[in-house]
Fold each of these.
Amino acid sequence: MIASFGGGSAPAQVAKRVPKAAASGDSILVIENIEVVYQHTVQVLRGLSLSVPSGQIVALLGSNGAGKTTTLKAISNLLPLEVGQLRAGTIRYLGERIDATAPHLLARHGIAHVREGRHVFEDLTVEENLIVAGNALNGRSEKPDLAMIYEYFPRLKDRRTQRSGYLSGGEQQMLAIGRALIGLPKLMLLDEPSLGLAPLVVQDIFKIVARINREQGVAMLLVEQNAMAALDIAHYGYIMEGGKIVIDGTTAKLAQDADVQRFYLGYSEGEGELASFRNVKHYKRRKRWLS
């Protein structure tokens, strides 16, 4: 258990269904019935609940606009930067409420957020980016381990003196993950790590992510549009629609679910017909999932 995070009043609880996985006693992260509003009017999350077991990868899937990125921002408390607010529900990390904890304190306590778009410091070299990220270790006895990062990402070692703005998209994504890892997190939030990357690069990055999870024991909440790649490395998965969870289960279960196969994995429904998420009416999907 870590010291109490503290810091402000928490939103009121809302009595709604919580997936069974959220009640797991060994979960490093538990989200219960959270509601998020932007600009005081636009509701994005509607009673969302999920959990991340210690040492496991959990995939959070859904179409554009479902609320996946907002979920990660709620966890790392970045919502105020976009006039967003957690109106209800609770977020617990290692058993402690973190609803009102500053992002830099969350990073020091072991939550690393790899945001969509990489957000590397383009004018700094690769190694300078990693050294700056090591500030998350302030107050701890550990020191930044550059050798560990270069072992996972040899291409970063080759380019350690190069300015980050001149890296390829895949190399920048590796650097973003490396910056998160150098702070020795207990939980990593990964937002669309495959975005804009070639398939072979995505394959390499996902292999490294799985290896980091396996060797370092870092729990991960992985937001992805590439459902097949995400389910391939995750242990458990949630699918969002309209700001709430519509289906969850082990990745083996989800991979065999007819709706998941049709709407997210692109399996055809008949000869010559390729299933498309956009071609299916919203109410039909919800009726089948919630029946």
Amino acid sequence: MSRPYAKLPPLIDYGLIPLINLVVAFAVAGLVVLAVGESPWRAAVLMLRGAFGYGEGVGFTLYYATNFIFTGLAVAVAFHGGLFNIGGEGQAYVGGLGVAAVSLSLGAILPWWLNLPLAVVLSFAAGALWALIPAYLQAKRGSHIVITTIMFNFIGAALMVYLLVNVLKPVGDMAPETATFVAGGQLPKLKGLFSLFGADLGGAPLNVSIFVALIAAVAVWVLIWRTRLGYEIRTLGFSPRAARYAGMSETRLIVVTMMISGGLAGMMALNPVMGDQYRVVIDFPGGAGFVGIAVALMGRGHPAGIIPAALLFGVLYQGGAELAFDMPSISRDMIVIIQGLVILFAGALENMVRPGVGAAYQWVRFRTEEPAGADVEEAR
């Protein structure tokens, strides 16, 4: 959508401004740490050490980042169509049904590398279908997509609880979860790959779904910036009136955009369900659908920005857990506050420094071009 500021070069718009916002967010977070009597510098070192200081920490960081790449891409696709998909949590939850359908029915028949593409398709389809009803209500009835997708998060959670308790739970088991998948329904971990580089992932659940997430990022880039459908989606997001004037079907674009968004969120289930827990359990998305909103905002809706933004939140999740363990005075709630500050400055206040940066850029540009203009006048 249009911005009330002059267009800046991509390096400044997508690189420098988010970096400044991130620095400000961590500076304010440092004040919070200082307020409880701890050293912000030591807290930062402990957080980075917990996220990247040893093999298992790296594995957990990348595991969390994988979830956030999927949900960040889901939110970004909707953003480009001028839609705000808050339902990634519920869509990911229902996407677990597609993963379970493949793993429970074909896990004993086919190897994982054949079941994985099927699980990708069915998890995408489940998430897309769960997003279809809010999309239809927005396109045909004018119901606000934010309200309906939030409502469908709760409906999806209730549906999954019912299915896990009354339908999918094995007979005789007390836990509300599906049966454990056999070998063909389990994605291999990446311990062997990392061991080639001398790193030990330990108990980290990092698995091959991270490659699926990276492929999805490339696919979203191709869709949004290299296809006719992507052009139509961006046109709808920039100006629905222009899209209608150009003969584009607003109803079709809203439905298609939301279904793609929901499908990407549904694919998030691959990582925890097929790659870690090997079964569907209660509340397996763990808030990743909501974190995806912050990831998409911070990544400016572009896959090249979403991947590092997802990695940053992976650092906050894994490094924050280590920080809360090593610094008892910093509780888990304070880690949530730090995450909230990053979201606030990188998302809600992302234009805070834009006027100043834009003015500085124009001043430098004017000073750089002024001598050349003076030389031309002198030559005349």
